[in-house]
Each structure stands twice: as structure tokens, then as C-alpha cells.
């Protein structure tokens, strides 16, 4: 059994969701073993978009076990969220002043904890945290082994846009923690090299953003038992790929055809959808 945990706005789901399900889970023989847990924000047109998303997932052969908005989420703890925001803003960095990053961190953890609560006593073989609404995922190599190794202690990831692991690893990754404690790892020997191996672009500027938070968690808890699945698109002409996506974001074959000669060991190409709202 596989749980897919999603937090985020729907944005460009109409362009991406159906294709992303095929790319991430198309090799799974029985899609009915995949259960979705979705936490989102209420936006204009929510009811119609929710219905469309439910239909796409149903057509894929999977089911939704939870689908709720933050304004009606009974699991939401505003005091805990505010503590995480306040801690983040005390970080001695002028870039750590917004509320978006810590709230996003909290709400992703919340979505995961909701899945844990609702599946209590029936742990999933694999748990996936993903962003299929507003990302472009393109499979360059088979993901079969990622889902089949149910006893593996390896955490698979694609920077901050995809995590796949068993319950033990995902619990470690998505436990509520003060962000200042997490980011203390950034000053440790070896962290910058670790970050560079995963994302050479962001490692140069080390922003106080969600990706840096996850890189610090990976470095602290998973540096010896994690695998980066994502192709690092900073290694080739990003502008050309971006323009391809703008011309026709549904034409993913053009993208993977372009990057294939550059691929060494990575499994997935992951890109923010250029047309996301």
C-alpha cells in the first residue's frame, strides 16, 4: 500500500496532475493500492476544481482518503504554527522575515501527521510527499525499485518537491521541529558540499527557504541513507527547457529528449510548472 501526501494550492493541476500520476506511479501494476491525502487552501473555484481532481485520481484507479482545506481542518494547531513562525523570524538572517516559509513547513508536516493519524495501526509500505499540482515530473529511468524495496531504509528525494520512504524515515523527516534548530546544520563541516551535490544553484546563495530546511534535515538524518532522484537541470541550458515548457507545458517528451544526453544517474526530471498561477 502506498500513501501520497499533498499540501498545496491546485494552481496548474489541469495541466499537470494527470501526467504526473503517470510519471510517478504509472509503473505500479495495481493503482488501487495508492491512497491520496490532500490538504489545500480554499481558492476561487475550489468546489469545481476539487471535483475535477477527484475525477482524475478516480480515473487513474486510485482513491482519496482525505481531502480538506486549511480553514476547515480540525487537526490544525494555530498556536504550534505561530511558534514555528516566531522561531523562524528569530533566525539572525535578514532573509528570514517572511511567514510563508515557516507556514509552508508546518502545513506539510501537518498533512503528513493527518495521514499518520487516519492510518493508525495500518502503516503503508511506501509514503510519498509530492507536489503533483504545480510541478512537472518526467521519469527518465524506472521507479520500480523505489516502490518495491519496502524494507529499505533509504529515503528517496527530489530536492524539496518529492520524498519517498517508509514510515520510519518519513516520520523523521516530517516531525514538527523549530526551524532554527534544523538550520544549525548549515554551519557544520560538509554541509555545503552536500547541498551542492543536490542543487548547485541554490547552494551558492543558501537562501533561508524550504529547500535549505530539507537539505539540512537530509544532511543531519539521512546523509548516509538517502538517494537524490532528481536530475539537476542547472547542468545544462535551463533557459531552453523553460521556453519549451512555456510553449507547450504538456509536451514533456520534448523535455526528456533534450536532457537525456546529459543524464548520468538521475531518475527524474523535476521542474516548477512555468504556467503555475
What keywords describe this structure?
single chain; 277 residues; alpha/beta; Spore Coat Polysaccharide Biosynthesis Protein SpsA, Chain A; seven-stranded mixed β-sheet; two-stranded antiparallel sheet; 12 helices; 9 strands; 43% helix; globular
Secondary-structure blueprint of this entry?
Elements lengths: L1 E6 L5 H13 L8 E7 L5 H15 L2 E7 L8 H12 L10 H19 L7 E5 L4 E5 L4 H5 L6 E3 L4 E4 L1 H7 L5 H5 L7 H8 L1 H6 L4 H12 L4 E3 L9 H10 L4 H8 L8 E5 L5
Parallel strand pairs: 1-2, 1-4, 2-3, 6-8
Antiparallel strand pairs: 4-7, 5-9, 6-7
Helix pairs in contact: 1-2, 3-4, 8-10
Q: Give the helix/strand class.
A: alpha/beta
- Could you state the order of secondary-structure elements as H and E? EHEHEHHEEHEEHHHHHEHHE
Query: Largest sheet at a glance?
Result: 7 strands, mixed
Q: How far apart are the first and last residues' alpha carbons, in Å?
A: 32 Å
CATH class: Alpha Beta
Strand content: 15-25%
Helix proportion:
40-55%
- Flag low-confidence runs: none
Supply the CATH architecture: Alpha-Beta Complex
Assign the CATH topology.
Answer: Spore Coat Polysaccharide Biosynthesis Protein SpsA, Chain A
Number of domains: 1
Secondary structure tally, helices: 12
Total strand segments: 9
Dominant shape = globular
Strand order of the largest sheet: 3-2-1-4-7-6-8
- Average per-residue pLDDT, rounded, comes to 85
What does the radius of gyration come to?
Answer: 18 Å
Amino acid at each position: 500500500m502506498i500513501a501520497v501526501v499533498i499540501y498545496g494550492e491546485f494552481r496548474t493541476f489541469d495541466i499537470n496532475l494527470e501526467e504526473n500520476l503517470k510519471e510517478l506511479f504509472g509503473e505500479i501494476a495495481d493503482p488501487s493500492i495508492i491512497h491520496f491525502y490532500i490538504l489545500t487552501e480554499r481558492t476561487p473555484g475550489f468546489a469545481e476544481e476539487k471535483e475535477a481532481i477527484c475525477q482524475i485520481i478516480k480515473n487513474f484507479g486510485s482513491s482519496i482518503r482525505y481531502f480538506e482545506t486549511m480553514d476547515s481542518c480540525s487537526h490544525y494547531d494555530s498556536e504550534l504554527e505561530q511558534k514555528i513562525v516566531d522561531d523562524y523570524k528569530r533566525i539572525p538572517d535578514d532573509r528570514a522575515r517572511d511567514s510563508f516559509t515557516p507556514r509552508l513547513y508546518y502545513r506539510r508536516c501537518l498533512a503528513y501527521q493527518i495521514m499518520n493519524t487516519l492510518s493508525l495501526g495500518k502503516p503503508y509500505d511506501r509514503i510519498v510527499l509530492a507536489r503533483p499540482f504545480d510541478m512537472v515530473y518526467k521519469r527518465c529511468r524506472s521507479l520500480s525499485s523505489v516502490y518495491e524495496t519496502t524494507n529499505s531504509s533509504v529515503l528517496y528525494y527530489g530536492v524539496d518537491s518529492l520524498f519517498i520512504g517508509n514510515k520510519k524515515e518519513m516520520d523523521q523527516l516530517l516531525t514538527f521541529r523549530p526551524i532554527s534548530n534544523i538550520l544549525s546544520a548549515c554551519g557544520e563541516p560538509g554541509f555545503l558540499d552536500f547541498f551542492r551535490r543536490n542543487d548547485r544553484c541554490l547552494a551558492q546563495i543558501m537562501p533561508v527557504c524550504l529547500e535549505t530546511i530539507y537539505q539540512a534535515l537530509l544532511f543531519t538524518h539521512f546523509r548516509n541513507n538517502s538517494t537524490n532522484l532528481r536530475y539537476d537541470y542547472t547542468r545544462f541550458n535551463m533557459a531552453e527547457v523553460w521556453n519549451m515548457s512555456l510553449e507547450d507545458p504538456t509536451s514533456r517528451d520534448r523535455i526528456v529528449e533534450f536532457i537525456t544526453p546529459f543524464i548520468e544517474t538521475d531518475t527524474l526530471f523535476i521542474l516548477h510548472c512555468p504556467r503555475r498561477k
